[in-house]
Amino acid sequence: IKDTSSRPIRLNQIGFYPNGPKRAIVLNGNGRSFTIRLLNNRTVFSGILTPSATPSFAGKTTYIADFSSFSKPGEYILTVTGSGNSYPFKIAGNVHQNLAKGVIKAYYFMRASTALPAKYAGKWSRAAGHPDDKVLVHPSAASDKRLAGTIISSPRGWYDAGDYNKYVVNSGISTSTLLSLYEDYPAYMKTVKLNIPESGNGVPDLLNEVLWNLRWMLTMQDPDDGGVYHKLTNAAFDKFEMPDKDTTPRYVVQKGTAAALDFAAVMAQASRIFKQFPQQTPGLADSCLVAAKKAWQWAANNPNVAYRQDQNNKKFIPAVTTGGYGDNNFTDEFIWAASELVISTGDVGYLKNINLLPDDKMPVPAWGQVRLLGYYTLLKNDAAVPELPEIKRRLINAADELIKGVDDNAYQTSMTLSARHFGWGSNSDAANQGVLLLQAYRLSHDKKYLYNALADLDYLLGRNATGYSYVTGYGTKTPMHPHHRPSASDGVTDPVPGLLVGGPNPGMQDGIKVPSKVPDEAYIDDTQAYAANEVTINWNAPMAYLANAIEALQSQ
Ligand code: G3I
Ligand code: 9MR
Which ipTM was obtained for this model? Predict the structure, then answer.
């Protein structure tokens, strides 16, 4: 049953591990105690509410219900006199397993150039769209005469988001985050079955899904010079229609340094992973490494080519007005690509002209901030670089900074410690904070990082100021109207499942008024609200990492 009310008891709507931390936040803690009840109302646990030491962004004290010591598996509700009941939740082993699979399966639903039969897609089955086998090289890419009038074949890949375009820059961090999930938790990820067409072929399903995008990415490289097109796109965002209805021309546009380096990083990482599956993916690992090196070389020769859509539109026809993913600082992209190449080739020469520590910033990863992806790779592979101890110190320090004051916080999560965390796609920031904390846990074995990563998952699944579990189809109060063309056009009431929406963003760049401009409340479940309620592959990826890593680590 979908519930659209806003219950004042906020908790992870999926549930808790028997021996893990368990917290709910009560907004109006009139009652001083809370109870945990079975669905038949019998009380099995009671506890005292503790007021938060600092107020929420809305300026209110919250009340914390900690029932970590209650460990009996079952299905329950939490009740506070005067506040009513929570949504039902479970205490169980593997409690996030379905969600964790669902946020990976979401990528199957995002596949371009293929039909999704009901056998795999259930009621969200749909016809094939965007074959992308005849893609025009846009004049912005054809200043190089060799390419003028050229048509390339660039099928497969995942649709970026609510729109049907395919962008290399954010495909980079998305694909890499999923590859890292496999690299960091191979034993667990080998057990995860997704019911996709390739299932059972001897390759873990997570990697099968990644291959759909990786094979597309390979086609985005100009084989002659190694440069990489920034994106494959319609000239303008298309209408809200199913993929097969959009038949407007598709273009690859100008090559750029960010695209080349993100591509190089992903291909280098993929080469060392697919090397483990030579029978199933013959030649792929080698092709990826060759492609990575060529893209790196292109970037070394073209170190400062930003994708500037506005400038291009003054010069070339047709104008291209789809997503920009413009970035004009490539320091972090160079660090990331060099790090992946060093690990995959063993050649530290890639770091010759790279300053691994250009300043002391440790930005939580995002499509335009990829420095830490390089650090994660160097650390987990124990790279033979003199900066490694300092990188480790900085990573632990960044994790400590992220959770400083969390015990006083109104929602008890890293995400809700700073209003700065709330911009376009804030939910991906929450998920990437969780990933950072898990990297710190891997390095230190200190449980506080693991528990705070779990708290970020709790945030995303309902322990937050709006009361939404932000993943479609998982939880009781979930988004029903994401800015996602198939979900809005397929005639099915439920949106495509497993999609993490962007989340609270007081910026309102879409012009849709949110009910509140308080940072963590600035969210609306409205199809038009692309600045708060769109979905995209680079937001789902850290969610997939976080949920699956937490499942893999549940007994710790
Ligand atoms: O980098 C600045 C930072 O310095 C500043 O402090 C901060 C303050 O707001 O803004 C930062 O820039 C933001 C930028 O993302 C980088 O994070 C912009 O405000 C923000 O408007 C911008 O949003 C991007 C949005 O496109 C508009 O360009 C989102 O990150 C990005 O996820 C989104 O991507 C779209 C694609 O274009 C099209 N497909 C859907 C996808 C998701 O909505
Ligand atoms: O659907 C588009 C979405 O993917 C983008 O994130 C967003 C911002 O670039 O733009 C959306 O498209 C809208 C366009 O910008 C303006 N006209 C209405 C389009 C659909 O809402």
Answer: 0.96
